[in-house]
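Troubleshooting log. The previous structure file for this entry was overwritten by mistake, so regenerating from the original sequence record. Sequence copied from the archived sheet and checked twice against the printout by T.R.
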Amino acid sequence: MKAQALKKIFSPRHGVEAIEKIIADLNISIGVYDQDGRLMWGEDLKDTYPSPAPIKDDDKTVGLVYSNKHVEAVATLLSYLLRSEIEKKYLAQDLLEKYKEINLLYKIAENINAAVDVKETAHFIIGEAINFIKTTHASLMLLDEESHELSVVASYGLKPDISDQSLNINKIIQTVLQKGSPQVVNDVVHNEHRFSFMCAPLKTRDKTVGVINISHENKVHYTAEDLKFFTTLASQGAMVIENARLYSQLRNTFLATAEVLAGTIEKRDPYTGGHTKRVMDYALAIGKGLHLNEEEMTRLRLAAILHDIGKIGVRDRILLKQAELDQEEIKNIKAHTILGEDILKSIDHLDDILPGVRHHHERFDGMGYPDGLAGENIDIAARIIAVADAYDAMTTDRPYREALSHNRAIKEIKKGGGTQFDPAVVDVFLKIFDTAEHNVKESVVNGDCAS
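Regenerated output below.
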């Protein structure tokens, strides 16, 4: 399956054009081989460059990349794409095998399959359990991937006022974890008090990631139908929780890969080292001040990381020029916003960051580029990045001028409010950063403005 998945990411349907574009813009030669040493894609470079980088799924090497430069970055990108493709195959198989259960819980699956947050999903599962099964207490517990200890992620109601240890509830939970099978105890007794308890494993493919528990303060006798529904709910919930975990992991991997790609551009220009990271930090600080939600903050983060990706297409003689640029060179530099969009638009799931990349040099008064957009017609991510980018550009040395002081840059940002910049974004920026003593860079480094 992994070899097939590796082949699939180089098919036209799966973004090979984007890979080819990145490789062409980075001006590198590349050869991709499977784990048996067979050339799968690109040029035969095995004898030319003796130090390949591995394409990995978890800790297992699935293929190798040979290249004249940036080999680690390319291998990281391909590893991310491979893991994504493999997970798609596994999830498709799970959906097929559980077709009847999905029909049975159509309404539930329709709601929870849209979730990408583990806690939100856990609370939804608990909510559906208490809607269909008599209970006075419910909890969903997940295994920590490092410590392998259980922790409560979501709960409802109050536990009985008796110790879990006395009831041997912990023993039941551990048995469910080890055997991967649900258990019902309809006659739990403690000090002459009787109540019912049910526990089902949260299983994904061949592993158990946690348990869901329900209990009633009285003996209610959970039925076989209760157990069937509860087990199916746990099965569907586990898949979605694992999806949410996977989504988080893939997002972090992709962000790290994006930072690597952005870093390769910065290495061409010693004057802009760290620019992407600083712009991202400033932008996230502003976004937090504007009370953007989690989804908007994620979109802003990625747009900030990739806002200058189009500079791949700017020639070194322009990018590194020691004097001011002429009109033709300025035109070439300005084209990086459009090129950045062109590079990214062929990659799945990046549509929502394209406006931030294309429009971060638009002006609030409509006099910017590339499209002359004005006011709130400019995407909020682009309006935020415009301020963060301008501040960092002003406070960083350039070949043709020295960096401005923090206070001088602040004055320029103030001056541009309402013309170059969105005044609302400027107001938030100034509230966070406008003090002579509290330099913005120190603030971000110390975590005062982190999202």
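The CA atoms of residues 356 and 381 lie 5 Å apart. Archived copy saved in two places this time.
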